[in-house]
Automatic annotation (TrEMBL), chain A:
<dbReference type="InterPro" id="IPR019927">
    <property type="entry name" value="Ribosomal_uL3_bac/org-type"/>
</dbReference>
<keyword id="KW-0689">Ribosomal protein</keyword>
<keyword id="KW-0809">Transit peptide</keyword>
<keyword id="KW-0496">Mitochondrion</keyword>
<protein>
    <recommendedName>
        <fullName>Large ribosomal subunit protein uL3m</fullName>
    </recommendedName>
</protein>
<dbReference type="GO" id="GO:0003735">
    <property type="term" value="F:structural constituent of ribosome"/>
</dbReference>
<dbReference type="GO" id="GO:0005743">
    <property type="term" value="C:mitochondrial inner membrane"/>
</dbReference>
<dbReference type="InterPro" id="IPR019926">
    <property type="entry name" value="Ribosomal_uL3_CS"/>
</dbReference>
<keyword id="KW-0687">Ribonucleoprotein</keyword>
Automatic annotation (TrEMBL), chain B:
<keyword id="KW-0496">Mitochondrion</keyword>
<dbReference type="Pfam" id="PF01245">
    <property type="entry name" value="Ribosomal_L19"/>
</dbReference>
<keyword id="KW-0809">Transit peptide</keyword>
<keyword id="KW-0687">Ribonucleoprotein</keyword>
<keyword id="KW-0689">Ribosomal protein</keyword>
<dbReference type="GO" id="GO:0005762">
    <property type="term" value="C:mitochondrial large ribosomal subunit"/>
</dbReference>
<dbReference type="InterPro" id="IPR008991">
    <property type="entry name" value="Translation_prot_SH3-like_sf"/>
</dbReference>
<dbReference type="InterPro" id="IPR001857">
    <property type="entry name" value="Ribosomal_bL19"/>
</dbReference>
<dbReference type="GO" id="GO:0003735">
    <property type="term" value="F:structural constituent of ribosome"/>
</dbReference>
Length: 311, 285
């Protein structure tokens, strides 16, 4: 039997007058500001105990937005390309202690980039209501050691990472749609001339032949390409701007402009950040005091210095 | 001259005297300014030391007073956050406060000194005609072309590269096109610039001189088909190298609908004014 269910979904503006729509939008913006301000005040909202860094502890990462790319120069005159990532409204949303998560490590759910509550479901809004934080576009989980858990609702800033540190950036790569085998897997195709009949970009043979008499699972074939999570490992941080919360990260990063990414400390063993002593569990504005507006790596050429004379 | 503000008539007389006394390198010496007035005999003249001589050095470039915004400041039409452009602009202004980047156009003759570990005296000086200005933001570049020992040389310099020590404009002028890549196929005399050329003085106000030179080309084949309308070149003398039939044949590649395409319109006038005022404000700080 087939039941047709009357759809009662509607968008938030449908049954509201124009004045009410404006009022809703304004109140939403004010509510966000009030919530973020509340979280910054340590008296109203008691923070949890902050532990010290120990060997083998992992700390939280951030959620950022990819702004674009720019060139930078080192003190020896070499040019490198960097990607600018801005940390927009990053808050810790939920803390999952070791027992709840998987029994081995604790986890922290972090969200970034505020978004309107009107087009999100009630189920999605529930966890933000519990944390007292405006709803976010992207939420990710970070596996964290027990001494690095942070109270839900604390804001995270770009100064959490310091210049000279290495990070891994995960994001959804640009979707290319249904693509052929040459673009998707890099096959060579066939020659353009010399008698080829209707075969220039085809995959060619699909397996060994009569012995297996089948095509193996996972055979590279045409299909949807892109729009999958890709991680770029071991990217150096050249510069951190604390005023606008922008990180300058070496090289290119997966994703299109204005896409939301997940940044965490490297898992690569040769690029550990033990020497730098970054803020643990995270950077708190009242702790560190006033950082300079721009933090630069030692090898980076700052534009306020005089021109380089290579001697 | 500022010392004597008391006697205005004597001031004017001394000005006239000074004009007569003006020397070639314009040293203003005001020893003759404060003349002793005939009426006042009660006190002996107080010794007023002569004011320091004001030397105006005309060999140094004066900052331009034309409203010129370098093309790399104008952001391209993209879906990028304007914060990214404003941060790049701040870095560009910081660099411009250290290195004076003068106003120049494709067609001007520039001399660039760059630090080079392999050069004698560690600094490399190259003089050439600017054939192209490309790139936006910190990656802005310009290409200089010259012919040295009968070999054409083109060097692409980055404006914000920290190794650049000095950029001098030896001759400021504009040409009929923005892109002078056709000089590669023109006769070598049009690309030769004397490396020891003296800077030609140009006024900081007024219009930039437009050189309406039509260049003679080498025989075909050229590196690109410059007669085709997509390049829109005004600066080549086509009558000397092409037959009218060839010109008509080139018009087959014309795309006359492009000028009416509204989606290709990108009006930068308001953006330019805003950015120009911002840049001028920051530079004067």
């Amino acid at each position: 039997n087939f039941f047709s269910i009357l759809k009662t979904t509607t968008w938030f503006e449908e049954h509201l007058t124009e004045d009410n729509q404006e009022y809703m939008r304004k109140t939403m913006a004010e509510e966000y500001r009030r919530q973020t301000a509340e979280k910054l005040n340590p008296l109203k909202d008691e923070p949890w105990q902050r532990h010290e860094w120990t060997e083998g502890s992992r700390r939280v990462g951030l959620v950022a937005v990819k702004l674009g790319m720019a060139p930078i120069w080192t003190k020896t005159g070499e040019k490198h390309a960097v990607t600018m990532l801005q940390v927009q409204d990053c808050h810790v949303i939920k803390c999952l202690p070791r027992e709840e998560y998987d029994g081995h490590t604790a986890a922290l759910v972090v969200g970034g980039k505020n978004v309107s509550p009107f087009h999100r479901s009630e189920h999605y809004m529930e966890m933000f209501r519990n944390a007292g934080v405006p709803p976010k576009q992207k939420i990710t989980t970070f596996k964290v050691s027990d001494n690095a858990i942070i109270k839900p609702g604390t804001p995270l800033y770009a100064a959490h990472f310091r210049p000279g540190q290495y990070v891994d950036v995960t994001a959804k790569s640009i979707g290319k749609g249904f693509q052929g085998v040459m673009k998707r897997w890099g096959f060579k195709g066939q020659p353009a001339s010399h008698g080829q009949t209707k075969t220039h970009r085809r995959p060619g043979a699909s397996g060994p032949g009569g012995d297996p008499a089948k095509v193996f699972k996972g055979k590279k074939m045409p299909g949807r390409m892109g729009n999958i999570y890709v991680t770029a490992f071991g990217l150096k941080i050249w510069r951190v701007n604390t005023k606008y919360n922008v990180l300058y990260v070496n090289g290119s990063v997966p994703g299109h402009r204005n896409c939301v990414l997940k940044i965490r400390d490297t898992v690569l063993p040769t690029r550990g950040s033990t020497l730098l002593s970054p803020p643990f569990p995270t950077y708190f504005t009242e702790d560190e005091g006033d950082l300079a507006e721009d933090l630069y790596d030692d090898d980076l050429f700052i534009h306020t210095e005089p021109s380089l004379t290579l001697t | 001259m500022a010392a004597c503000s008391r006697r205005l008539d004597k001031f004017i007389v001394s000005l006239r005297l000074l004009r007569n006394l003006q020397l070639q390198n314009e040293r203003f010496l005001s020893t003759s300014v404060c003349r002793w007035a005939p009426g006042n005999d009660s006190e002996p003249p107080k010794f007023i030391p002569p004011s320091k001589p004001v030397i105006i050095d005309k060999t140094q470039a004066v900052a331009t007073l034309r409203k010129f915004l370098s093309p790399e400041f104008i952001p391209p039409r993209q879906r990028t956050n304007p914060l990214k452009f404003s941060m790049e602009r701040k870095d560009m202004i910081r660099r411009r406060k250290i290195l004076n980047v003068p106003e120049f156009y494709p067609g001007s003759i520039l001399a660039v000194s760059m630090a080079d570990p392999n050069a004698t005296g560690k600094i490399n000086r190259f003089v050439g005609i600017c054939i192209q200005r490309g790139g936006k933001g910190l990656g802005a570049t310009f290409v200089l072309r010259n012919i040295i020992n009968q070999q054409g040389v083109e060097i692409c310099y980055e404006l914000y590269n920290p190794r650049i020590q000095k950029i001098e404009v030896l001759k400021l002028e504009k040409r009929l096109d923005d892109n002078l890549m056709y000089l590669r196929d023109a006769l070598p005399e049009y690309s030769t610039v004397d490396p020891d050329m003296k800077p030609v003085p140009f006024p900081p106000t007024g219009e930039v001189p437009l050189n309406e030179l039509k260049v003679k080309m080498r025989p075909k084949p050229w590196s690109k088909r410059w007669e085709r309308p997509k390049f829109n070149i005004q600066g080549i003398h086509f009558d000397l190298c092409l037959v009218p039939k060839q010109m008509e044949h080139a018009q087959k590649w014309a795309q006359p609908w492009q000028e009416y395409d509204m989606l290709k319109e990108y009006d930068t006038s308001k953006l330019e004014q805003q950015i120009l005022s911002e840049v001028q404000q920051e530079m004067s700080k």
